[in-house]
Design a protein that fits this description.
Leucine-rich repeat, LRR (right-handed beta-alpha superhelix), 13-stranded mixed beta sheet, 2 domains, 13% strand, elongated, mainly beta
């Protein structure tokens, strides 16, 4: 195989062992998505640190990897995908200072490790859905973060987002245990986010959302499957009438009102979509 190959993609091939990669001296993208790889190997075994030293994109999602520390042999990585593995921590991330996007979804991670996240000052997207994380933390140096996904974890409150108030555009927190009081913290959604246009709080424990009325840049607000019972509980969303285009409130007690759609449309005139249906 050509040692000057720039991209190597071997998806769904039942590969168990990473080997023979040390000869690729110009590899830019390595994708072994959906295999049976147990260990990140050969990433720095070649001449001058090949193939890891030249990699910019590494996709090892849907394997059975338990340790991601060998990613340290890929100092120029900009995108790292390790979703659906068996990782328990973030060890190894801290050396990847050029990263812009990380997907560690569907692993067994319990903590957002500040020591590993702090050096990632260029990070723009962090995807951590379907783990076992109990607290948002470790983001103080990530001042370029635009997308944050911590869906399907064990969160009870939204906090420690003070460094993202000028950059965060999308925040996904569905399927957690966040109650109303967990959305008013001064370091969390109690702040003003200048660019936040998508907020997903579906399938949590919210009883009202009047506390979100100050998020003036919101275009999409997902609140399905909470415990919101009356229109008084969403009254302050009327202040989002200039920007808000889509709202999901299905599977709340509020939806049982026979005039549910009509009242929402009157409350927020800018809406073009209520739940999955266009107005």
């Amino acid at each position: 195989m050509n040692p000057n190959l720039s991209q190597l993609v071997l998806r769904s091939q039942l590969i168990r062992v990473m080997e023979g990669l040390e000869h690729f001296v110009q590899l830019d993208l390595l994708e072994l998505y959906d295999n049976q790889v147990e260990e990140l190997a050969c990433l720095g075994d070649g001449e001058d640190g090949a193939p890891g030293k030249t990699l910019r994109v590494l996709d090892m999602s849907y394997n059975v990897i338990r340790d991601m520390q060998p990613v340290m042999f890929c100092p120029n990585l900009q995108e790292l995908y390790l979703a659906n593995n068996k990782l328990r921590n973030m060890a190894g991330l801290g050396s990847l200072t050029k990263l812009r996007k990380i997907d560690l979804g569907a692993n067994r991670i319990r903590e957002m490790d500040a020591a590993e996240l702090a050096p990632l000052v260029h990070l723009e997207e962090l995807w951590l859905g379907k783990n076992k994380i109990e607290r948002i933390e470790g983001l103080s140096t990530l001042k370029k973060l635009r997308r944050l996904d911590i869906q399907s974890n064990r969160l009870t409150q939204v906090e420690n987002l003070t460094s993202q108030t000028e950059t965060l555009e999308e925040l996904y927190l569905a399927h957690n245990g966040i109650a109303t009081e967990g959305t008013i913290l001064p370091s969390g959604l109690g702040q003003t986010f200048e660019l936040l246009n998508v907020l997903d709080l579906s399938r949590n424990r919210l009883t009202q959302v009047n506390q979100l009325g100050h998020l003036k840049s919101l275009e999409e607000l997902w609140l399905s499957g909470n415990k919101i019972a009356t229109f008084d509980d969403v009254q302050n969303l009327s202040s989002l009438g200039e920007s808000l285009q889509t709202v999901y409130l299905e599977y709340n007690p509020l939806q049982e009102d026979p005039l549910y759609r009509k009242k929402l449309a009157e409350l927020i005139p800018s809406l073009s979509q209520i739940d999955a249906t266009l107005i």
